[in-house]
Amino acid sequence: MLPPRFPISKELAVILGTLLLLLFISPAAAWWAHPHFGWLAPYALWLLVILGAALICRRDDSDEP
Amino acid sequence: MSHELATLFVAGFIYLVVLFLVAYATDRGYVPARWVSHPLTYTLSLGVYATSWSYYGSVGYAAHNGLLFLTIYIGATLTFLLSPVLLRPILRLSREFQLTSLADLLAFRYRSQLAGVLVTLFMLLGTLPYIALQVRAVTESLQVLSNEVPSNTIALVFCATLILFGVLFGARHISPREKHRGLVVAIAFESLIKLVVLLLIGGYALFGVFGGPAGLGDWLALHPQALEALYRPVNQSPWAALVFLSFAAAFLLPRQFHMLFAENLDARGLRTATWALPAFLLLLNISIPVILWAGQRMQLDINPDYYVLGITVSHGPSWLSLLAFIGGLSAASAMVIVTSIALASMSLNHLLLPASYPDPAINLYRWILWGRRLLIGLIIMAGYGFYAGLKHNQSLVELGLISFVAVAQFLPGIAGLLYWRRATRSGFITGLLGGVGVWSALLLAPLLHSSGILITDMGIPGLVAESGMHKWAFATFTTLTVNGGLFVLVSLLTRQSPGEMEAARACCAETLVPLSGVVVAGSSGEFRTLLAGTLGKDMADREVDQALHDLGMRDNERRTPELRRLRERIERNLSGLLGPQLAHIIVNRRLELDPEAKTALADSMRYVEDRLEASRSQLQGLSIELDNLRRLHRQILQDLPLGVCATDNQGKIVLWNLALEMMTGVEAQHLIGTRLNKLPRPWDGLLAGFARTAEDHIYRMELAVAGKPRWYNLHKAAYADPVIEGAGPSRPGMVMLIEDLTDLGNLEAELAHNDRLASVGRLAAGVAHEIGNPVTGIASLAQNLRHEDDPAVISQSIEDIIEQTHRISGILRTLKSFSRGSRHLQQRETFPLCEVIDEAAHLLRLSRKHDGIRFDASCPQEIVLTGNRQQLSQVLVNLLSNAADASQPGDRVDLLARGSSGEAIIEVMDQGQGIPDELRETIFEPFYTTKPTGQGTGLGLSLAYKIIEDHNGTLTIDSQAGLGTRVIVTLPTHEPEQHHEPPAYH
Fold first, then answer.
1. Cβ contact, residue pair B91, A65, below 8 Å
2. Tens digits of per-residue pLDDT, B647-688?
3. What ipTM was estimated for this complex?
4. What per-residue confidence (pLDDT) applies to B981?
5. Interface touch B81/A16, C-beta < 8 Å
6. Domain range enclosing A17
7. Does A2 lie at the interface with B, CB-CB under 8 angstroms?
């Protein structure tokens, strides 16, 4: 009997969502929203979160919605 | 470099023709299926989120509000990151209950047609400005590129083309199971076009305008205010509100919901979209600041909304400006097409059908299809009307955000749907009306006022200004506070209807609720008749056939649990066609449930099993362990080498394992839920009869299967029915074990036969001697007859010869009787015991090996046994043979039988050396012998023990060293006066 497959880790998804909010909505946004970091800073952070999501999805092998 | 309006028109027309060809080629199967169903195709189709607002408006929004434009995509990224807890549950519901729109979903959850109507109306109201925005973007882009004011005819032609596309490729099928692959691929193609074009324009801005990244860096160093302006709005008033609004819009906007859920081909697509769509949005937006700064550097004298076009028109190659126009056209057309299709589906299910349900005599499928097509046209034309009626004094983003705040009003309802089972219909409707009211006052009224449609703005802008909040933050906060507050408050004050509670449980993935109730209609044929009253005969037949096919059921299904499942499946299928609420009403009215009937364990067990299998990956923690345990137990039962059949308290089969499937040739899926007497022959009589009889065990029951006899042991026991629904104890169910003895019996018979042949071999010498004596006598008598004339002597000689031949025949008959192959051990007959005893003693007396040993047999004539005579004879021969082997010449072997209270007791006693204590336990084992090699098989005693046990008797040995051995056999005697009512076997 195969062990049950756990769907994409909901916890990780929520953590990543929280990280996104932390980076873009919390006062932490003031850190990167500065000309000193150049105009690509928000895109770099955004890309970081996207890469995190891609990593989580690689771990998720469930076919079910 | 500007273009002729005609050139742009032709370019746009060619692009739309290409779009038609892409959709057509996909629908015709010319595009490889793996491309069509590829997760990236699905992801690109979700790029419909980026409309002309994103394509043109982002630059304009960035010009005035810096990075605020990015919030629209950060919010969407959040939506997709939270896909496992947000989108996947909705996808599951949409698929399971065939819900094609947000209105379907909310009407299903809150079991309210009014909810569906309100959602549809509000969605129409909130989305029409958005469609108008697309039309406006296309016409204004023409104006920018041609320096001419395009006539309304161009906008009309644009709308007409989109109507044609929507009708041809977005309303081909009426069932949500059949996806519009052509539409999906065409929208994905459009997303790809706008992404590539925007990147090209960004590349042109960077390298063509600034001369490369270094040039851009230099320009930014010279204009630090540009970068400061970009960052200034971060974390200011509307920042979080816009992230929140776009979070909601990314899955609640009609076009998003449609592409996400209604056109989803494979759940894996959504998994890929979790990261791929945000990546798409990032790429789409990375050019925006560069394009903005390029426009500022070039000091373009146009609305920044159209810098995307402006920088290419001023200095770029003409092909790039044409491509830029195509990209914008692509963004606008995709939005209008998908939105109109989604809104048409909603409007049909929640406005048109409830308001004017057609006569069942007409073809309802055709009616639905053409109704949907008509609505696509009406919606796009309404959007055009909105465009024509509004004064164009709002930015593209303004119009888009009005729609965003509108769809955000569905968030409380969605939260209730997914996570708050207590939420009620009244709460949802009240909250929605409250939110819509505030939205209309805060956002719609000023829009209509600025367009001259309303004469007063009711002082709303002043009120917003007094609040000190940004307009969007104020609108978002106020509408959702009123909406959510009313939703929670009214939900707490009101109660759910039973239907609402059932729907709420179904929406909650953690809850497993078996189907309850019994359908009054007794067969799938009755379903057809009853449904025909509302759906028409053809549609009723097709829907019942479809549901039967979906469930793998046979036509004319009659099992009550299966009919309950069939009813549910029909409702779900109709939900995809008519909307959940109308489908629910039709099915409730036509396929009524019996309110008095109770749900049996069999009815619910199948449902629970199916649901557990379907949603296994959703189980967590203890649920997984319990499910593992359930699977283990079920697998043990399935793999048991005995047939297992369990029935519930109503006598319906709940378990039919693999061994029983093999034994009977009947598959479990066709039996679960039926009664035992509905089994095919001969199993109906065997199992139903056994279930009725008082006996808990029946041994060696003979049954004719396919014309051949087979033998079975049957056992049964009652078990407590763990009632799933309701409380309190119920009548017990029953579990039956069926053991097929036929193959084992045949093997035993063969073994016994071999043992008998071995015995015959050992007796051969004695037999030859016994036959030789009469043959010699016959020969002598015959020789004497040659010379005898006296008739009396001749007559006497003949009599003697005949007597000798009878003697030989008797010997041969005994041998033949003993050694013949039995068809089966189970052949039973009634016979006097003394006949078998005499026969066995006679056989042993024939043996020369045992010359000198006296065999004394004694048996009362009245003892009669029932059993296999041949086997019992074999037992006695084996016992006597063993006794003789243990004896010395001159010893006596006694074979004594007597009757005692329903039993025959047979004792075989010898005067040998007895059996040592250490061998007592092993002498019954097969192939164990103390005799020299070649003189014994070691099977005699073990076979004798087995045979006596099969006859419900006992075989014991009493032996003392030096005093001989006594073997005691007890057997039940035949008692004809005792009569048990046998089960009804066939």
1. yes
2. 887 788 888 888 888 888 888 877 787 888 888 888 888 888
3. 0.90
4. 47
5. yes
6. 11-27+36-58
7. no
